[in-house]
Amino acid sequence: MGLLTLVEDRPTPKAVYNWRIYVLALIASCGSNMIGYTSAFIGTTITLSSFESEFGLDEMSTDHVDLISENIVSLFIAGAFFGAIFTYALGHFWGRKWSLVIASAVFTLGAGLQCGSKGSSGLGIMYAGRVLSGLGTGVASNIIPIYISELAPPAIRGRLVGLYELGWQVGGLVGFWINYGVEMHMAPTHQQWIIPFAVQIIPAGLLFVGALWIKESPRWLFLKGRRTKAMQNLTWIRQLDETDIYITEEVAAIDQALEEQIATVGIGFWKPFKAVSARPAIMYRLFLGCMLFFWQNGSGINAINYYSPTIFTSIGVSDSDVGWMTGIFGVIKAVMTFVWLLFLVDQLGRRNLLLGGAVTGSICMWVIGAYICVVRPEDNPTDKLNGGGIAAIFFFYLWTVSIRPFFLWKFALT
Questions:
Q1: At residue 414, does pLDDT exceed 50?
Q2: I need a surface site. Which of 57, 71, 333, 341 has the fewest CB within 10 A?
Q3: 104 and 211 in contact (C-beta within 8 Å)?
Q4: For residue 187, with 0-12 CB atoms within 10 Å meaning exposed, 13-18 middle and 19 or more buried, which class applies?
Q5: Which fold has domain 15-219?
Q6: What is the pLDDT of residues 241-288, one digit of tens each?
Q7: C-alpha span between 280 and 285 (Å, rounded)
């Protein structure tokens, strides 16, 4: 049993599985495409000779260049951190639809600033653009799976939330390969580095336009007491009349869930925080969930996304080969995500995959780190990789395979 298998909790009319629910999920998933792309392209783009020449990096010391590169990457992450914090307030007061509109608008503005930055004096504009893009990413990455899961019928909820992961991986795949394309087929001019930055605007623009059209989550509307609008949206999404027994049962289930929430938690902005603090068992579960997210990111995947070209160079890969080897990294990430997701998660279980992936990934990182420390390929360059270098690359790709379950445990919550 996997994401492609329909498991209905009750008799479900065929009309429920209509094109509207898939279109809404696809539009929302433009946001994950945006996130996947922007996290993948930047690491290689800032190493392009045209980018270094544009901002005068080729005339700076190595330490200064490293500092600027770190700023470009880390300011985006800082923006995403605060965007994630703002998500709860936006989603609570403004709803899912307008949160996506705001997130995509802020991201698009940030991408525009990045494209408009020029010369060494333009680094400040570049930094501002990266912060804004990070803010939009932080909001979108949290709101999109919530929105999709609230819209989806139970039988296809996992499938539709899987579109979120699909969008992320497709965006990442494009991000990893676009730099190889511009480096191989374009002269090192302003246009060479601006194209990868400009492509960010495509998924962000699609999300912005689409978010203006999509329907607000009926569940959020019910929560806010806007029952008439909630019923209109729910019947439109399900393509059923208000009097249909399926709609009646779904509304009853939503009402029951809201009544339980009011009785046990409350519906005010601060109520969930008070409820959690008053119940140690729930606090412990929240702690476990937060730690899963923390250690997922602590596995190093974000750092490797941004600095994969640097890692390959450290292993001893020549500059001419770094581009396509980084692209292969993106391909393995995308392919293995769906191998785990569609074929192995339900057979082997989330916990087993998580533990096995953690152990294997840790071993791979220790092997790569030991090779770099002992051999020091950057200090002892050769015309071709030796056996140790090839083994290090193998373990790097094996790490990519093993670490994917870290990002699939969340599907157990859908």
A1: no
A2: 71
A3: yes
A4: exposed
A5: Growth Hormone; Chain: A; (1.20.1250)
A6: 999 999 999 999 999 989 888 888 778 788 888 888 878 888 888 888
A7: 9
**CATH 1.20.1250.20 location in the chain:** 15-219, 279-413
At residue 385, does pLDDT exceed 90? no
- Which amino acid is it at 399? W
Distance CA 131, CA 129 (A): 5
Three-state SS for 16-52 is: HCCHHHHHHHHHHHHHHHHHHHHHHHHHHHCCCHHHH
Q: Angle 110-176-315 (CA atoms, 0-180°, nearest 5)?
A: 120
Percentage with pLDDT > 90 across the chain: 40
CATH number assigned to the domain covering 279-413: 1.20.1250.20
Gyration radius (Cα) of the chain, Å: 23
Confidence of residue 9 (pLDDT cuts 50, 70, 90): low
Structural element, H or E, at residue 309: helix 301-315
C-beta separation of 115 from 194 below 8 A: yes
